[in-house]
Design a protein that fits this description.
The chain is mainly α. It contains ten helices and no strands.
């Protein structure tokens, strides 16, 4: 029965996460309710995200929604961030992570409401100014993760990159940051394949469904989906801080 639940959690979380980010808001609390150890939850989440992110990225790459050349501008940086996040996860306090996530999410929400000049086209090129943010988000993804895809989506969208290209870049970066973190968690004996495999199977299924529906969403629907998930994540972080201190 746990296998079925893990598959369902992975499918739903990744379906939402691919379209707007924040799939971790669904699967991490759900797995905690099942009573799994926190380190096993995080490592299994990284493993499933690694596989599902690559599967959705590959579909968009085959459709030529983005180029491998552009993806490689940010990918190695995301990988480095994931490794650093995995290495330092055990030394970072939960409180520090909560405040960091809350601040980044508030920034992302503010950016989503910023008015942009109308353009007759959207870009597929990654601006160099996004790279410092990618390494920070990769670090956060390797350390814990919920909300990292939302942050990346906001950054790419605010840089004028098209929605489908933003999804592709986000999924590629997530694949690499999770790969770096998984390597660290595996060497630390935190990765449980009994948890990770069914979660990954559901995640791959959810990712494939979502990338096939992505081009049917309007720009307005995309923006409100991103904002809604960001607001939910902020409430989640605030609740966790309140529960810890009160």
């Amino acid at each position: 029965m746990e296998t079925v639940f893990l598959f369902a959690i992975g499918l739903i979380a990744t379906f939402v996460g691919t379209l707007s980010g924040s799939g971790g808001l669904i699967n991490v609390p759900a797995m905690m309710l099942l009573g799994f150890p926190v380190h096993s939850i995080i490592s299994a989440n990284k493993f499933s995200n690694m596989l599902s992110s690559f599967s959705s990225f590959y579909v968009l790459l085959k459709r030529k929604e983005l180029s491998m050349k552009e993806a490689l501008k940010t990918g190695p940086i995301a990988l480095s961030g994931g490794v650093l996040g995995g290495l330092f996860a055990s030394s970072l306090s939960e409180q520090a992570l909560q405040f960091f996530a809350g601040g980044m999410l508030l920034l992302a929400l503010a950016l989503s409401f910023k008015k942009k000049k109308q353009s007759t086209h959207t870009s597929r090129k990654v601006p160099m100014r996004t790279l410092p943010f990618i390494v920070l988000i990769g670090w956060y993804d390797g350390t814990f993760g919920p909300g990292q895809a939302t942050l990346q989506m906001h950054i790419f969208r605010q840089s004028g990159i098209s929605y489908l290209t933003s999804i592709g870049l986000t999924r590629f970066n997530t694949f690499l940051s999770c790969t770096g973190a998984v390597a660290v968690y595996f060497l630390s004996d935190h990765l449980s394949m009994a948890i990770a495999l069914p979660l990954a199977a559901g995640s791959i299924t959810g990712a494939q469904i979502s990338v096939r529906l992505a081009n049917k969403l309007s720009l307005g629907q995309v923006n409100w989906l991103l904002r809604s998930m960001t607001i939910l994540l902020i409430f989640q972080v605030c609740y966790s801080i309140f529960k810890t201190h009160f």
